[in-house]
């Protein structure tokens, strides 16, 4: 099982090819004496003198794969298997959307206020792929785990659970939201075809 040991969900030091943590930072430019020594000790890898924007930044000692930060981001988002999002409050009830990206099954639910309504559908592969790309665009994996406004007692509470390969990420809030929260709500409404919020 692959492990994620960094605080952020996107760990740039995990090899996107084999999942190994035996990785080295690649250093470019004219090396100094200290840089040569570190390379000889196996602490870094020399990348040469030619520096370009798309140069690989990391090297895997297990499989010899080289990658950059964009590759790491793509790898992390491709690990998402399941997402469940809930939002609401006491007076308006709660909305819940659950998406299984493996089976492509989506479940929508509104509950509270004395009634419950449910809806279920299957999303197309292209829709699921687009959904993951939009999650990436709002940087959801790097949202903080908690957003709480302690000055408001009632109001709106929300939670998101993201099941990844080998890890579950939980985020929640009470009357306080990440910067891209509105985009996330529009995304959940778009993929479910139902109200969310």
Explain this structure.
With 197 residues, the chain is of the alpha+beta class. The chain contains 4 helices and 11 strands, in the order βαβββαββββαβββα. The protein has helices at residues 33-40, 69-78, 125-137, 181-192, and strands at residues 23-27, 44-46, 58-60, 66-67, 80-89, 93-100, 105-112, 115-122, 146-148, 157-164, 167-174. It has a 7-stranded mixed sheet with strand order 8-7-6-5-10-11-9. Strands 2-1-3-4 form a 4-stranded mixed sheet. β7 (105-112) and β8 (115-122) form a beta hairpin. It is elongated, with a radius of gyration of 21 Å. The chain starts with 22 loop residues before the first strand and ends in a 5-residue tail after the last helix. Mean pLDDT is 90; it is low at 1-7.
């Amino acid at each position: 099982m692959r492990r994620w040991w960094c605080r952020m969900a996107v760990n740039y030091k995990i090899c996107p090819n084999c999942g190994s943590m035996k990785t080295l930072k690649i250093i470019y430019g004219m090396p100094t004496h200290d840089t040569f020594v570190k390379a000889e000790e196996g602490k870094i890898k020399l990348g040469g003198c030619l520096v370009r924007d798309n140069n690989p930044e990391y090297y895997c000692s297990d499989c010899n794969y080289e990658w950059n930060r964009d590759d790491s981001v793509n790898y992390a988002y491709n690990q998402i298997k399941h997402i469940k999002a809930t939002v609401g409050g006491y007076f308006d009830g709660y909305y819940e959307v659950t998406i299984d990206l493996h089976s492509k099954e989506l479940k929508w639910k509104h509950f509270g206020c004395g009634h419950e309504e449910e809806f279920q559908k299957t999303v197309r592969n292209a829709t699921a792929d687009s959904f993951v790309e939009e999650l990436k665009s709002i940087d959801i994996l790097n949202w903080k785990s908690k957003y709480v406004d302690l000055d408001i007692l009632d109001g709106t509470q929300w939670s998101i659970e993201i099941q990844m390969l080998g890890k579950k990420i939980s985020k929640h809030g009470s009357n306080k939201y990440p910067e891209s929260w509105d985009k996330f709500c529009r995304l959940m409404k778009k993929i479910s075809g139902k109200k969310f919020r």
